[in-house]
């Protein structure tokens, strides 16, 4: 018998992870949970021209993070990124909602990814 056959199932040190610890929703706006507790969430949303002013939009994450988010990354789907900007407002974001800010002269899509635990 190999060493793996002698180990208990769980999420602790020297344990074999049960597949239930790898929950996920592989969808356009989805998530994946790892046994360590780290969660990866992703998605996209469409926006209209802001005509030079800052726009904002809050999105609800597919699953609320149990503790907090660690990192937010977003980018436009565009062939000319020179006049488009996207960021997020940490003061208006939480474990379950991310508030994005952006400037764009045209209709675009913003793709995002958030890490947390």
Automatic annotation (TrEMBL):
<protein>
    <recommendedName>
        <fullName>Putative tail fiber protein gp53-like C-terminal domain-containing protein</fullName>
    </recommendedName>
</protein>
<dbReference type="InterPro" id="IPR054075">
    <property type="entry name" value="Gp53-like_C"/>
</dbReference>
<feature type="domain" description="Putative tail fiber protein gp53-like C-terminal">
    <location>
        <begin position="33"/>
        <end position="117"/>
    </location>
</feature>
<dbReference type="Pfam" id="PF21882">
    <property type="entry name" value="Gp53-like_C"/>
</dbReference>
